[in-house]
Every structure is written in C-alpha cells, then in structure tokens.
Amino acid sequence: MPKKTLIVGACGQIGTELTLALRSRCGSESVIASDIREGQQELMRSGPFVQLDATDKAAIREVLESNEISDVYLMAAMLSATAEKNPATAWDLNMGSLLNILELARSGKFNKLFWPSSIAVFGPSTPRTNTPQSTVMEPTTVYGISKLAGEGWCAYYHRKFGVDVRSIRYPGLISWKAQPGGGTTDYAVEIYQEALSSGTYQCFVKEDTRLPMMYMEDAISGTLQLMDAPSAGITVRSSYNLGALSFTPAQMAESIRSHMPDFRISYAPDYRQEIAETWPESIDDSKAREDWGWHPRFGLEDITREMLSRLRTKS
Ligand code: SER
After folding, report:
1. Residue 1 pLDDT exceeds 80
2. Are residues 129 and 154 in the same domain?
3. Which of 37, 110, 181, 186 has the fewest CB atoms within 10 Å, i.e. the most exposed one?
C-alpha cells in the first residue's frame, strides 16, 4: 500500500504550495487536499479534494481510516491580525484542530504529523536579534499564545506517547501562488502586488520595521526536509527556529525600485505595527541546520525578481 498524505487547510498560503509540491513528488492520487472551502483552480485540478472542517474530529478520523493515511500536515489556522479581532474563535480553531489531530495520532490513525508554528511565539521580552531556539517566550498576541501552547502540546505528545510530530516556526512567508490571509507580515506580499497593479503601496507597518522573512520555495523545501529526516535526529519536538533573511519595508521598496524606478511607498502604521514590534528581527536557526541540514537559498534580490516576474505572468 503506497504511503498517503492528508493536508488539512490545503487552500491557504502555505497549504496550496505544499500540496502541489507533495503531489509532484509522490503522485497526485496519494495526496489528499482538504479545507473548509475550495481553493484556487490549479490546486483543485491537481488531485483529490475533501471538504473538511479542521475542528471536526469525527470527519478527520473518517478520512484517515478510509484512505489509510500515513502523514498529516495540519495547516489550518487563524493568523495574527485576524486572531486579534476574534480571540475565542482563533483559540478554538488553532488549538481545537491540533488537539484533535494529536489524539488521532496517539491512537495510531496515522504515523507522522507536521504542524506549523511561528515567530509569533516570541514576545517583547525575547532577545530580538538572532533570537535563540530556547529563550524567554512571553507572546502578547492571541495567535502567539495559541502557537506557544501548541508547541507545548506537540512536545508533550511526543514525550508521553511517542507521537512523531515535527514543527517549524515560520517567519513571514513571501509567495505568489495563493494569497496570505490575516497575517501581520502580509505587507511583504501586498507590496509586490500593488507595485505591479498601481505603482504605489501604502504599508501598514513603519519603514524601518525589520522582521524575519522567507521565500515560499525555501519554506516548502525546509518543511519537506524536516519531514524526510530520520526521527532519531530530530532533537526539537516543540518547534524549530527557521531563518532565511531579515529586511524592512524600506529595503523592499528599494529592491523593487531597481526594477520599477517609479515605484512609490508611503506608510500608515496600524495595530499590526504593535504586533510586529513584539516579534524578533532575526532568528538563530543553528539547530535546524545541525539536525537536518536546513539551508535557505533566496535572498531579497532573488525574491523581488521572482515575485515581480511570477505575478506579472499570473495576471
Ligand atoms: N505570517 C504570520 C502572521 O503574520 C506569522 O506567523 O501572522
């Protein structure tokens, strides 16, 4: 029986590209995409899709049993900005879905789980530059609180029940295939979209706000690398720090201007500025490099070139 994979939350920014990458690697039929709503065309046409609420344990159990799933990627979550507006719903979705899936893993319904964490687990009392793997963690956002609690649950289910769960603290992710939704780092995608559609962008964080970022292609390779690694070499069962590069909106604008000299940016910081200020500026990811060979490829110039050319051909 070939190994099958289930992606819960397959239509989001990461889920879309993860599903497509896994399908091209393992064959379309062996990767089941699921989400509460349908996703974009390329994804929907690429293989099987099941409509599924990530908090519906019985429905997930049914999909696991009838398809003999071995790996699960739980990508459904409410991100930082939206979660601030709906704290209780964010907690229910982010924690409810994780606890259900950990229980299903514990009872042997599948073998290996991937669950995404975030730089949002850190807070204002965390050292902001080169933030260590293990450090003070006092997040001040609902999203960060839920991700930190989730990391604790992952480590607990591994320690107590031997669940093979693996996780990454993603930085802001920059991609062109699927829209990000409700995150604080969404400006790093919007800036390219607006540069192409109107030549101007009004950024919702200040020009010198420096945050860790990563191109989606790097994030997907890192995720697959971690999932491929032998279990014995994975020494972190809460979640791995993962860095690539850090930059400010002003540096992004500069990089865009080298392709589009007339591009203009203005700044109107809103509540997301406060969130951004509590997050690290840069990340120490030496554990991921040591344990499973993490190595990012895309710098800011590569990202700008890729984003502008991909978005141009897409529209
Ligand atoms: N990109 C996410 C957010 O802004 C961080 O994990 O919420």
Report:
1. no
2. yes
3. 37
